[in-house]
Amino acid sequence: MAAATASFQAPAAAADDLTFKHAFGTTALPRPARRVVSLGYTTQDPLLALGVRPVAVRHWFGAFPHSIWPWARPYLGDAAPDVLIGEVSMERVAATDPDLIVAIGAGLSQAEYTVLSRIAPVLVHDPADSAYGTPWDRMTLILGRATGRLAEARELVASVRAGFAAARRRHPGWAGRTGVAAYHWSGETGAFAGADTRARFLIELGFQPTDAVAALSGADDFYARLSPEDLSPLDADILLWVSSFDTSPDLAALPMRRTLTAHAEGREVFAGGLVSAALSFGSVLSLPFALEALEADIAAACDGDPATPVASAVKAGLAP
Fold first, then answer.
1. ∠ CA(12), CA(121), CA(127), 5° rounding?
2. Pair 206, 1: CB distance under 8 Å
3. Helix 273-281 vs helix 286-301: angle between axes, to the nearest 10 degrees?
4. Which residues contact 62 (CB under 8 A, 6 or more apart)?
5. What span, in angstroms and rounded, lies between the C-alpha atoms of 103 and 141?
6. Contact of 117 with 108, CB cutoff 8 Å
7. What angle do CA 255, 320, 237 make, to 5 degrees?
8. Are the beta carbons of 84 and 39 closer than 8 angstroms?
9. CA 266, 2, 281, 130 torsion: positive or negative?
10. What pLDDT is recorded for position 14?
11. Residue 13, SS3?
């Protein structure tokens, strides 16, 4: 846990420091931002948590009004941000008259960054992170600084960390055990790893990836594909299946899944639909939502008794 937590640490910064070094250079804000376009696929969450309602947001997936998911909806109030879908329209961004464009986790090219910088100051990911690999706490603190709300950002980060710490105290037996978040879709099975939010979620709870999954991926990788004939890297103390759907018949019928000890001993947990989206966002708002939804099932799967039912696995048809 110590190594993983260290990777989430953000550098200290003064509340009035509005100069940001990032992958494409340096951006200096003349004042804390107020009219913010959120081009990152998940940056609307920390902005809303900080009390900043974006004037436009980038759509990732899901069919919720203004592309705001349920865990963030209470923070939107009566705001109605423009929703940008697909390739970024520079004209639509300019039309919102922003004083900051947040593009951390947006996957911008250098050329797109250059054009957007003619509209307003642009923030992209830290040079230490990959384009989509900014940890939730660093992202929250950066945006807190950019909007003049660093103290609030620190409180938010501390609150989420406290939530994970409390879960670890409630379940001391999780420390040092293995946990893997996995997927199966379009005939492909794999493990989330390295910089992925779903892998980081289990690490925050005290689990470590199996040696096999760790060997298949690097620190900046998000997933590792597995041979359909050998799913043994997934054989962890907790196997968390992540699906976009509330049921997954093809996963339930996956023949080699039934060869795993994790299956035989009832150590599988299923995160479908809304919970899997919360894990995918991995934000200061969605992580507490995912933790609340999954804690009881992880505890049931990890209690050492194969007879203990795991509600989500039973519902998804995964129970042995």
1. 45
2. yes
3. 120
4. 69, 277
5. 15
6. no
7. 90
8. yes
9. negative
10. 57
11. coil
pTM assigned to the model: 0.92
Tokens encoding 161:
């960390």
CB-CB contact of 37 with 102 (8 Å): yes
* Pick from 144, 243, 145: nearest CA to 198: 243
pLDDT at 173: 96
Q: Is 36 helix (H, G, I), strand (E, B) or coil?
A: strand
Nearest to 103 by CA among 119, 123, 83: 123
Mapped onto helix, strand or coil, the DSSP state of residue 122 is strand
Q: What is the pLDDT of residue 13?
A: 56
Question: Which segments of the chain are extended strands (E)?
Answer: 19-22, 25-28, 36-38, 56-58, 82-84, 100-102, 122-123, 179-185, 188-192, 223-225, 238-242, 268-271
Cα 266 to Cα 151, 212, 238, distances in angstroms: 43, 21, 9
Q: Could you tell me if residue 194 is left (phi over 0), alpha (psi between -120 and 50 degrees) or otherwise beta?
A: left
Residue ranges with strand state E in 18-77: 19-22, 25-28, 36-38, 56-58
Structure-token pair, residue 25: 């250079």
Lookup: tokens for 22: 């990032």
Residue with tokens 């976009």: 244
Closest by CA position to 193, among listed 218, 212, 176: 218
Average pLDDT, the chain: 93
pLDDT recorded at residue 216: 87
Residue of 162, 163, 301 whose CA lies nearest to 241: 301
Low-confidence ranges of the chain (pLDDT < 70): 1-16
What does DSSP assign to residue 87? S
**DSSP H helices in the chain:** 2-7, 44-49, 90-95, 110-117, 136-146, 150-170, 197-204, 211-216, 249-252, 261-264, 273-281, 286-301, 311-315
Q: Report the candidate in 15, 12, 54, 6 with the shortest Cα–Cα distance to residue 34.
A: 54
